[in-house]
Amino acid sequence: MSDENDDSKDEAQLGEAGKRALEAERHARRVAEGKQRAAEQALADREFEDVRREVAEAKGLHPSFAGRLKGGTREEIEKDADELAAFFESERKPRSGMPSLPRERLRGGTDPSDEGEPDAGAIADRIMAPPV
Description:
The structure is a single chain. The protein is mainly alpha-helical. It has a domain at 2-93. 64% of the residues lie in helices and 0% in strands. The protein is built from 3 helices and no strands. It has helices at residues 2-58, 74-92, 120-128. Helix 1 packs parallel to helix 2 (74-92).
């Protein structure tokens, strides 16, 4: 409490110009502290992104999944990466009792029963033949 009284006594002795200078200095300090907090937060965010990217790579996940990893600590991020990797691994394996998707035998041409390659000469003959 005595510090506040001393500060107000000091300000009273400064005069108008001194008060303006003191207020400008205080404002500059607040701005600098705000910039420092923003820079520290940006650094923390960057470090967090680096950890997520490192964990995704270590767990064999595609780099695009690094941004999806959640957690406040490296251990939590690793646990989330393990869960995500396990999900993808389970999706790759066929489920027991479930039939797999049928594989289609795709063929070109208009006749699906035609197994052979079209003969270029026969096609040319049909094109050149008079209409029936």
